[in-house]
Amino acid sequence: MSVHTIVAVGLRRGLFSRFAGRVSWRSAPVILGAVIILAAIVIAITIPWWSPYDPIALAGRRLQPPSLEHWCGTDALGRDVLVRTLYGTRYSLTIAALVLAVGVSIGTLLGAVAGFVGGLLDSAIMRLADITLSFPPILLAMAIAASLGPGLVHTAVALIIVWWPIYARLMRAQVLNVKGLDHVDAAVVSGAMPGRILFKHIVPLCWSPILVNMTMDVGQVILLASGLSFIGLGAQPPTPEWGQMIAEGAGSFYSWWIAMGPGLAIFLVSLSFNFLGDGVRDFVDPRSRVST
Amino acid sequence: MSEKRDNILDVRGLRIAIPGQDGERVAVSNVDFEVARGEVLGLVGESGSGKSLSMLAVMGLLPHNMQVTGSIRFDGQELLDLPARQMRKIRGGRIAMVFQDPMTALNPVLTVGAQITEALRLHNPSLSRRALRTRALELLDLVSIPMPERRFDQYPHEFSGGMRQRVVIAIAVANDPELLIADEPTTALDVTIQAQIVEIFDRLRREKGLAIVLITHDLGLVAGLADRITILYSGRIAERGEIEAVFRRPRHPYTAGLLAAVPSIDSTIARLHAIEGTPPSLAARPPGCQFHPRCAFALPLCAERDPDFQWFGQSMAACHRAGEDLPMIGGDDGR
Amino acid sequence: MLRVILKRLILMPFLILGIVTATFVLAQFTKGNPLISIIGARALDNPDIVAAAKARWGLDKSVPQRYLIYVDNLAHGDLGTSFRTKQPVLDDLADRLPATLELVICAMIVGAVTGILLGVISAQFRDTPADHAARLFALLGSCVPMFWLGLLALFVFSVQTHLLPGPGRLDIRSDPPNTVTGFMLIDTLLAGDWDGFVDAFRHLILPSLVLGWSVTGIVARMVRASMLDVLGQDFVTMARAKGAGEGRVLFNHALRNALIPALTILGFTFAYLITGSVLVETIFSWPGIGSYAVDAARSLDYPAITGVTIVGGLGFLIANLLTDIAYAAVDPRMRSAA
Fold it and tell me: Ranges for the ABC transporter domain (chain B) (predicted)?
């Protein structure tokens, strides 16, 4: 049973709590993922109001292991690791949202136009996508980040360049599929403008695989972004970004707790988006529940 | 039926159930059939009638979630109680199977020779490579494949459909089985090829005393090859008996309907008769006689009670009105 | 199939040109004096070198002309000089390539073996707890940040328990063998240095496992899907009907067929492993291309990072080509269609 049926049934009964016992174990990961993501978003937004310490100021003695005062210990500069990890949610979620919003917009737009118009424009766009895709993502991102200079914004630019072709390909394939459907022919025959046909009759039918991919990709964006920060090309100190924090943890090797918080955070968030992605797939394509 | 026959396969009260969330679904129930050595049994029914499931049950190849009960005796030995290891020895050794679609029954990435020798080696681990090859070539020759030497090292995609089916048969008879189960062996083939395959079956039966269960929905094929026939409908036996008796005088309206749907050269009827409606799905089996919703002669009783078998000397039918002289189309009497 | 490979071969020069052009365009965005990245900051004071470099890279010419010169230099294997190592980039890369290849190949083996095994288990025991456990394990590998996992692995297995050696390819106190192939496992054996071989092997364990696990998920997902497809086919039932045991049915009949479509992800896996190797090499101080790229990017060593990018792109193209060839070689239907 997928999230939407659960929600639908829950709403119909008006009793979510009564329903809890009937949640099938199949959907447990989806719910877990959704809860963790929701929590991460809430933390990202509200953390300044309730954080016990400043993320970039001294909070206690240096390199203290986890204690009641500092649940995840303190780092080499005496900052609270847990607070920094919680603040890190802001950077990772923002960069993922930014990269996917811009990357998917550019990619789907170019892909839709390529698939719809065809011909030379199609070839030009898709060859550009091919070339971009023929670089291992991290090398391309590193080259871009290196030429633009380090920094989170540049990381985002690099990741957008890495990500758009994936969505251009996906959208183009979708548009080509939908283009042949009857209602599109009907719109063409009735003399609708090409732009209208594309955006009113074709594109709205193409979103489901894009949505699924986007959910699954959030984790990948976060992993790559934090990876770039880890090697020093993304967020710079003292930003409490997860990859950057792990790099600091690598510097104080014996204080394992410094890297533990951000490491687990990346892992949890990326896993949650994968779980949620399964739910989204079931939602948009009920058949997938049977086959995969 | 007389119990003095030398039955190689004797199936009694076979029941196959698929447990599900909303209770179990019974795919096959109360099915009996038997085959004697050198005899051909035609197992006839539409798709979903349970004929293939029944034979997979004999082979012990049903998916694990299906529950099989009843009795399947092979040469006096109860197969349902047999440990997996011993069942494997029987499979492909004493009981072999020919599949419906030769295009998918062969492994596309292994040579034909490798697939034949595998069957041999699994049951005779001590055979040398040369002996395996010699025997495989003999088998290819037996099923009339020209130039076996060259064919041995080729892949299935280099064979035509009819040739592939011969290879499948060669694999099936590799270990001189006593029983051959042929699941719609000619359905996927051209008519001319069908005749050749039938010829091979007939020869194997005559020369090696092979017992064959022929699963099919092609009554013409059954008429040409089978000694006896069992007609399944919706997981139950509708009618069974000696082939002449059943064809001459069908006792079950379903059998009559099937016979009426077979084109025949000497037919005097102007058109073929199709049976109206479709068989019930596994999820929605009707109460009473399975056939009653489609039956032209159905009585109120038919919707209530499952009919018992009535015995007619050389055949038996599960129909409440089997004893009556109904104006059924089909069979020689109806013409 | 031969046609597909041919088509790819014909397209390849164009793609390479595209890659080169892309890096050239990127280079135009580089901040600061491009001369710095060619000859290094110190040499800027030497007018002879500056003039020579300008002439060689045509910096006094227009952008299109510069592009042509750039391509010409690349065609002659001149990727420029790293201003960090003061070596030609091509030599640097050649020195470091074997280390990366050794690691990536070992990781590929780890990923392929675990992925195939988990995929087969998943498919055979579909929708049972075994399936779910296998899929979860595979998924975890692609969600855990490698650079953190590597750190953790080093801490646990090397620092705390001393079960495995620390970073690097060999114990620092031992003499490295003569470089023949650049593969430590092979070179130590060629030198007859058994202890060195064991040491090199032990150094490879952690980075290979960490890197390999990251692709387990990709492989397992693909193998599971194609196994499910194959297991439902007649020839699998036929193999059982022959009397073959379940292991034989799974590995000899089903897996052989299931691996053919699974092969298509080899190229993709390679891209993934390159990405991973950059991070894993950094953690394990592995003297390969990945850590070279990181050092280059950190110090804004532009020729070096461009060189790595081009080589990475080429490697990716070659990996895809090899995938196609492997695909054609494994499937007899493709072989004879050629």
Answer: 11-259
Residue A82 has pLDDT above 80, yes or no: yes
Question: Which pLDDT value is given to residue A292?
Answer: 35
Domain span at residue B114 reads 108-175
Report whether pLDDT(C119) > 50. yes
Q: Encoding tokens for residue C132?
A: 């779910």
The two three-digit tokens of residue C308, written as one number: 């790595």
Q: Is B165 domain-assigned?
A: yes
Partner residues linked to B239 by β-bridges: B231, B317
The pLDDT assigned to B265 comes to: 56
The full set of domains in chain A, from first to last, is 29-46+79-286 (1.10.3720.10)
Mode of pairing for the β-strands spanning B228-233 and B236-242: antiparallel
Q: How far is residue B2's CA from residue A196's CA, in Å, rounded to a whole number?
A: 78
Distance CA B44, CA B217 (A): 5
- The C-alpha atoms of residue C320 and residue C312 are separated, in whole angstroms, by 12
pLDDT above 50: residue A9: no
Quick one: which H or E segment has residue B44? strand B40-44
The CATH number given to whatever domain includes residue C152 is 1.10.3720.10
The contacts found for A204-208 with CB under 8 angstroms, 24 or more apart, are A205/A174, A205/A178, A205/A181, A206/A108, A206/A112, A206/A171, A206/A174, A206/A175, A206/A177, A206/A178, A208/A284, A208/A285
Could you tell me the pLDDT band of residue C35, with boundaries at 50, 70 and 90?
low
Burial-class residue C102 by CB neighbours within 10 Å (0-12, 13-18, 19+): buried
Whether the CB-CB separation of A184 and A201 falls below 8 Å is answered with yes
Q: How far apart are CA B11 and CA B162, in angstroms?
A: 31
Residue B221 in any domain: the answer is: no
C-alpha angle B293/B295/B300, rounded to 5°?
65
Do the beta carbons of residue C243 and residue C138 sit within 8 Å? no
Residue A158: list chain C partners with CB under 8 A.
none
Reported as type and span, the H/E element at residue A107 is helix A81-117
- Place A5 in a pLDDT band, splitting at 50, 70 and 90: very low
Spatial CA neighbour of A164 closest among A221, A118, A203, A202: A221
Q: Is residue C45 part of a domain?
A: no
What is the domain count for chain B? Answer: 1
Chain C contact set for B171 (CB, 8 A)? 238, 242
- Going by C-beta distance under 8 Å and a sequence separation of 6 or more, which residues neighbour residue C166? C154, C158, C159
User: Closest to C241 (Cβ–Cβ): which among B97, B107, B158?
Assistant: B97
> Does residue B327 belong to any structural domain of this protein?
no
For residue C225, which residues of chain A lie inside 8 Å, CB to CB? 292
Cis omega (within 30 of 0) for bond into C34: no
Tell me whether C283 touches chain A (CB under 8 Å). Answer: yes
In a domain, B279, yes or no: no
Whether chain A has a CB inside 8 Å of the CB on C155: the answer is: yes
Whole-prediction pTM: 0.84
Task: Dump pLDDT digits (tens) for C120-155.
Answer: 999 999 888 999 999 999 999 989 999 999 999 999
Q: How far is C19 from chain A (nearest CA, A)?
A: 6
Residue bearing tokens 């309206």: B253
Q: Considering CB atoms only, which of C15, C23, C316 is closest to A143?
A: C23
The residues of chain B scoring below 70 in pLDDT are: 1-4, 263-274, 329-335
Q: How far apart are CA B227 and CA A106, in angstroms?
A: 72
Give a yes or no: residue C227 inside a domain.
Answer: yes
**Confidence (pLDDT) at A15:** 39
Task: List the single residue in A145, A246, A274 with the smallest CB-CB distance to C143.
Answer: A274
Residue B305 burial (C-beta neighbours within 10 Å; 0-12, 13-18, 19+): exposed
